[in-house]
Amino acid sequence: MNLLRSIAAGGALFMLASCSLTTEAITQMPYAPSDGVRVHLESDVVFENLMVVSDGSGRGVLYGAISNRSADDVEAVILADDIDESFSVDARDSINLGTLQDAEEGNLITLNGDFAPGTNLPATVSSGGAESPVAIPVISACTGDYIDAFPFDADCD
Questions:
Q1: What is the CA radius of gyration of the chain?
Q2: Whole-model pTM?
Q3: Vertex 122, ends 116 and 126: CA angle to 5°?
Q4: Domain count, the chain
């Protein structure tokens, strides 16, 4: 009886272990562990954590980062209804969009439009001849995580 149990347990263990041989580990796949969206262009430029923070009044602020993984300086572009921004990114460097310094200097990328938290802002990102459509999520400025990231008086009623 014990022999049968040992064989059954060994067989079950073998079957469970073999599952990992045929399934790629999810943590090995690139993903955006954030509220924003990630776009990796063929030109080795990566738009990271792109999001618009808005209170639902039609005003918003673009946040995110652009990483240049190539050996050359690049121009990266974000185009949407109310955004037409170009950024110079040095080789093997990154820039952040929507930093505290940007806010203090009045350099935040603000936009006005018909969008609300929970929707997506259709846009196009491009660099080095490569481009991709992207749906930038609109995040509520009325939550604890983003209330300080909204430079306007938030209309959260």
A1: 22
A2: 0.78
A3: 140
A4: 1
